[in-house]
Amino acid sequence: MQNITIAIDGFSSCGKSTLAKALAYKLNYKYIDTGAMYRAVTLFAIRKHWIDAEKNINTQALIGALPEIELGFANNPETHHSDITLNGENVEQEIRLMPVSSVVSKVSTIKEVREKMVALQRQMGKRKGVVMDGRDIGTNVFPKAELKLFMTADPEVRARRRADEYSSKGQYFSIEEIKHNLQQRDQEDLNRKEKKLIHDLQLLAQQNAPKT
Questions:
Q1: What's the distance, CA 40 to chain centroid?
Q2: Topology of 5-207 in CATH?
Q3: Percent of the chain whose predicted confidence (pLDDT) is above 90
Q4: What pTM value is reported for the model?
Q5: DSSP 3-state of 169
Q6: How far is CA 183 from CA 75, 78, 157, in A?
Q7: Angle formed at CA 107 by CA 195 and CA 75, multiple of 5 degrees
Q8: Which H or E run includes 36?
Q9: How many Cβ atoms from other residues are within 10 Å of residue 58's Cβ?
């Protein structure tokens, strides 16, 4: 059977990665967590002190340093999944912590960052046999993917999923704090200028709308 590209879009903490990993394992496909790529770039900026306490980003410094950022995925023999690497360092655990989660959506709005990530993602998936999840995979990165899914979930469910993820890493936040963070990220994703999060049905409706 011919390999295909599977693109999974949707909001954060609704199970995109869980489904994508399961599909990749079942089909013996390569799994690429595109959100981890943006998180790794965010971690790079945090380590350089280019993001302050108010989440203001030194955009020009980050853009200028993009050629220094090398991202890859390394197989984790314990989980049997791919961990993100930043300049050769496995940063899978660190990118999941709140300092990164709270600002990654802002970093992802930077045009030059998105251009670099999309180019990398297309390069990684050009041979098909891949499952990718993210916020614009089906509409921007692989608009012609053979299978596209869009996922969401009740805000309470999403918050509890994220709370479980944090607690497993020894970080504890109230459900309200997490819900606020998720809502903030949703708004940033839905309203960003660069390739905002959009349901494929919305995209189809826009394309077929009568011209005025």
A1: 10
A2: Rossmann fold (3.40.50)
A3: 50
A4: 0.75
A5: coil
A6: 32, 33, 13
A7: 90
A8: helix 34-47
A9: 15
Is residue 154 within 8 Å of 14, Cβ to Cβ?
Answer: no
Range list of H helices, 94-199: 98-101, 104-108, 111-125, 155-167, 175-191
Nearest to 41 by CA among 112, 98, 137: 112
What is the residue extent of each domain of the chain?
A: 5-207
For the stretch 10-68, pLDDT in tens is 888 888 888 999 999 899 999 999 999 999 999 999 999 999 999 999 999 999 999 99
Lowest mean pLDDT among 6-20, 78-92, 169-183, 193-207: 193-207
Taking CA 149 as the corner, what is the angle to CA 147 and CA 7, rounded to the nearest 5 degrees? Answer: 55
54, 52, 63: which is closest to 194 by C-alpha?
A: 63
pLDDT at 209: 45
Amino acid at residue number 55: K
Q: With bands split at pLDDT 50, 70 and 90, how would you rate the model's confidence at 81?
A: confident
